[in-house]
Amino acid sequence: MLQLNNISFIQFKNYLQQQFIFEQKVIGICGNNGTGKTNLLDAIYYLSFTKSYFSTTDAQNVYHGKMGMRIEGNYSTNNNEATQLVCIFRENNKKEFLQNNEIIKKFSEHIGRYPCVMIAPDDTELLIGSSELRRKYIDTIISQLNKQYLLYLIDYTKLLQQRNSLLKQAAETNNLNEDLLSIIDKQLSDKATFIYQTRKNFFNSYLTLTLEYYKKIAESTDDIFLNYLSPLHHQSMQELLKNSLQKDIVLQRTSSGIHKDDIDVTMNQSSFKTTASQGQRKSLLFALKLAEWQTLKTNKGFAPILLLDDVFEKLDSKRMYNLLQWVCKEDDGQVFITDTHKDRLQQTLEKADITFQLIEL
Ligand SMILES: Nc1ncnc2c1ncn2[C@@H]1O[C@H](COP(=O)(O)OP(=O)(O)O)[C@@H](O)[C@H]1O
Ligand SMILES: [Mg+2]
Q1: What contacts 186, CB < 8 A, 6 or more positions away?
Q2: What are phi and psi of 122, to 5 degrees?
Q3: Quick one: pLDDT band at residue 155, thresholds 50, 70, 90?
Q4: Which fold has domain 132-299?
Q5: Could you state, in order of their start, the residue ranges of all structural domains in the chain?
Q6: What is the pTM of this model?
Q7: Ligand 1: which residue has its CA nearest to atom 25?
Q8: Which residues line ligand 1 (CB under 6 A)?
Q9: S-S: 11 plus which of 64, 69, 73, 331, CB 3.0-4.6 Å?
Q10: Looking at the domain that runs over 1-115+304-361, which CATH code has it been given?
């Protein structure tokens, strides 16, 4: 069980000083544009991931003109145990995270303990934007499920930087340190092999869930398929690095590896990006996110916190009703839903026969 009972801010985004108390599992948040609905959801995300959902720096999250900020959340976890999480971004630009007053030394250890899933307006970028977005997305899910994965991913990124520096150095000095390269390549390969295997295993079950949710949301038989693309399907990372070495020397960076993996989405055998309608994009986005929610729930044994930002703008009332039926069941976790229209939010929740709390900003 995971439930956020209250959250308080000091100088977080548009909140100078504020506390919110959450007394229900389903919390509707309404208010006009710019009143801080998304910021409130982002703060909840922040406590789970030690960073903003949006790719902003910590400093950008400090109330304009002020120095430092603080977010505090009090949770009930298993057996009604109380847990306090505090994030402090100090005036000297240092970030501290505390769990029950104890400093969390490695943020990587925190990831996955308080799982949460955000669905936000611009998320369809995930389907049409760069491959980096999709890798980050998948990495964020797996990192919450598998500690080793996150650690190896961090190692891989560091090793990649070392290899790239070495390649740059080689270009400058006309002399490649082959001994060091072979040590780095060996380590890179070990990490890459593990990351690849984990992604592949994860992807199999995730794909099935996503397609099931798509059918339910879109109420259609569109022939959607997601394909995990990786050069490691065909050769080992060692071979890959060896084969691309000449090219890498010229480019002065590592041109191939699992840092180039992608997910290819097709519909009726052609590119989803170019053929899907707005509605189909929205349906697939929700399917991906709900599959994430479901995967975390199954794996953790309790539901992650679900953050639904402006989803009424994206789903018609029937789909919204269905969605609420799936995620707001008795035994499920907490759901936060924002909307600019109070009446719409209230009526939809009432119609779905859900007990909820309404916060007006
Ligand atoms: N660092 C900051 N300091 C002060 N205000 C901020 C900061 N970051 C964002 N805001 C303000 O927060 C408001 C947007 O909040 P947001 O949560 O996106 O609103 P909503 O989702 O309700 O439309 C804007 O008015 C913006 O200027
Ligand atoms: Mg918003």
Answers
A1: 238
A2: -90, 10
A3: very high
A4: Glutathione S-transferase Yfyf (Class Pi); Chain A, domain 2 (1.20.1050)
A5: 1-115+304-361, 132-299
A6: 0.94
A7: 34
A8: 13-14, 31, 33-39, 60-64
A9: 69
A10: 3.40.50.300
